[in-house]
Design goal:
alpha/beta, Rossmann fold, 2 domains, 5-stranded parallel sheet, two-stranded antiparallel ribbon, 56% helix, 10% strand, nucleotide-binding, tRNA binding, P-loop_NTPase, Ser-tRNA(Sec)_kinase, ATP-binding
Length: 365
């Protein structure tokens, strides 16, 4: 601990940490379609910032840590709700690292973790010389590398982040600890992504990328104030002007951390109840229409009457679960905080609906 404190004092004298001796730390969300070139861009950006600015840059690629979004040997895909839980867990792992940096202490494993995910996360940090393990400890613990607490540190999160609700979770984490936050959207033509995807050892289905392209929500600072610190980059652009824009964006985020404002708890709860009541009504109406359309399609497929009855029961139970989840604060299916976004709720419901419906359609073949 004493060594970490000495490193912090040295960093403060060099202007690498803030006036309260907290490390200057920022999170950068790097988003875009699969095969848009995000990982290549992230590696090049990290190398350039290390060489030109002397910053410490860590790249957290979700593909390297999350379980693969591909069918297993039995042809089974992760359920959408399970996939969201994995993403939530990864943010908890990241929070452990952030807390260790801010406090200057060691990083311990969180409880109730998925062991393989935690190990892959640790491996990712070790490879970039951000942490090292204490070999002499009876229980494994991980110590921060000297550079992680003595220089400006940027963490680049590399993933599709195609819904703004996914990115908002990272923003909330930055706000919780008063960190810098920014977003880079790598814009790449769909056909280019499909071509690159086809050249990968384990390509995604083209339908998945096309569907994602139709749903992707680019950062919109005019619509969402929290997204104002964002930049859209053409994937083919590697000009010095583009590099300067990116560096300026990152520097602005680093020097202007988000202030964690203490809200009026009573007013906040009142606003939440009003908002929840309105969105519950809208969600209930829309989900009813969605189920009605799904049942019509099932009848057109000549599904037996007994199966139709069970399908209707399953879908109505799923709707009831979703609405209760919405009332209780999004704990099971809706792993995001912005419940005012009806499209996110419907999209999550449809993901779960498709899983239910598939069981009945498969019985036909």
């Amino acid at each position: 601990m004493l060594a970490a404190e000495e490193d912090m004092k040295t960093a403060a004298a060099a202007g690498e940490v803030s006036v309260d001796r907290r490390p200057k730390l920022a999170l950068c969300v790097l988003c875009g379609l699969p095969a848009a070139g995000k990982s290549t861009f992230a590696r090049a950006l990290a190398l350039r910032l290390r060489q030109e600015r002397g910053w410490v840059v860590g790249v957290l690629s979700y593909d390297d840590v999350l379980p693969p979004a591909l069918p297993d040997d039995a042809g089974t895909l992760p359920r959408p709700s399970q996939w969201k839980m994995f993403r939530q867990e990864l943010l908890k792992h990241l929070e452990c690292f952030l807390v260790a940096i801010i406090s200057g202490g060691q990083m311990s494993a969180p409880p109730n973790r998925t062991e393989t995910m935690w190990e892959d996360f640790i491996t990712c940090l070790k490879k970039q010389d951000l942490i090292f393990s204490a070999a002499h400890e009876a229980q494994p613990c991980h110590l921060l590398a000297k550079t992680a607490v003595s220089r400006r540190l940027f963490l680049v999160l590399d993933d599709n982040f195609y819904y703004q609700s996914m990115r908002y979770e990272v923003y909330q984490l930055a706000r919780k600890y008063s960190l810098g936050f920014c977003q880079l959207f790598l814009d790449c033509p769909l056909e280019t992504c499909l071509l690159r995807n086809g050249q990968r050892p384990q390509p995604l289905p083209n339908e998945t990328i096309r569907l994602m392209e139709s749903k992707i929500e680019k950062p919109n600072g005019e619509k969402n104030a929290w997204e104002h610190n964002s930049l859209v980059i053409q994937s083919s652009s590697c000009s010095s002007e583009a590099s300067l824009e990116v560096t300026d964006l990152l520097l602005t985020a680093l020097e202007n951390p988000i202030k964690c404002v203490e809200d009026n708890t009573e007013q906040k709860e009142t606003d939440r109840i009003i908002c929840s009541t309105n969105i519950l009504h809208k969600a209930d109406e829309t989900l009813r229409r969605t189920i009605s359309q799904t049942m019509k399609e099932a009848k057109d497929e000549k599904i037996p009457l007994d199966n139709l009855k069970r399908l209707a029961e399953d879908l109505n139970k799923l709707k009831a679960d979703f609405l209760e989840d919405l009332r209780q604060g999004n704990r099971k299916y809706l792993c995001f905080q912005q419940t005012t976004n009806l499209s996110d709720i419907i999209s999550s419901f449809c993901d779960e609906r498709d899983t239910v419906v598939q069981k009945y359609f498969s019985k036909q073949h």
